[in-house]
């Protein structure tokens, strides 16, 4: 490879890495902004309804502007079943994770949610897809140890069991949801799956908000603005994540995305004045270590060579 090609490749990798970092920071901003909007008196379902509506409008417009080919024999992204599966899964995960913010600091929620790669390892092992080798067992022990340290540390005495259960359930549901998205994306463009998630989520949250009578119960402009801002950040996250993933591949992308819980922690400190205990930091580092371990490719077992071949 010539020096010019190496420089171009390095610049492309750097750009893709920065795009994934931007995506992670956008996603990591959702929890603190939700806490502030709810603090202004806006209901969770209303916040999320306007978030996903904003995101849906932006992603549908972007997909229309970009133009995506229709494949024959493949159901379009806007069919009711696709919207229900994609939007329903995302709405369930978002609801559980954001409900946990009523009882737990944003940093704790973010770190605990990031145990989902460990649950993926467990699920794939139980289904016989991949075995639990030494690396995965170590990662699982690290993740569970991180949870135990967060919940059991003296500084975590005030952690609510309902909050911990809610966010861990969200992580487990996300671990199940990932292969579902993979199935949807096999024959569809990534932007089509993103639009299905946003539009389906908007429809479900809007229905919930209409039933509870909170959709248009907007206390002030700040609450509504923060809800719409979340939608903008969500749309940006989808686009930048997919662009970075195309260059970096899944392993590098997953490793780079681990900046998200640390970004959420910093926003919790700055915006919400939430203290971060030692248990949260140590447990969070353990969970991130588990995530990094799970990105290592499995080592192929080579047959032992005879002593004659070594001579």
UniProtKB/TrEMBL annotation:
Principal place of residence: membrane
One protein family per Pfam: EamA
One Gene Ontology CC term in the entry: plasma membrane
Membrane topology value: Multi-pass membrane protein
Membrane-spanning ranges: 18-43, 49-65, 77-101, 107-126, 138-157, 163-184, 196-216, 228-249, 270-294
Keywords recorded for this protein, A-Z: Cell membrane, Membrane, Transmembrane, Transmembrane helix
Residue span(s) of domain EamA: 16-151, 162-294
Protein's cellular compartments: Cell membrane
Protein name: DMT family transporter
Source organism of this protein record: Gemmatimonas groenlandica
Taxonomic path: Bacteria, Pseudomonadati, Gemmatimonadota, Gemmatimonadia, Gemmatimonadales
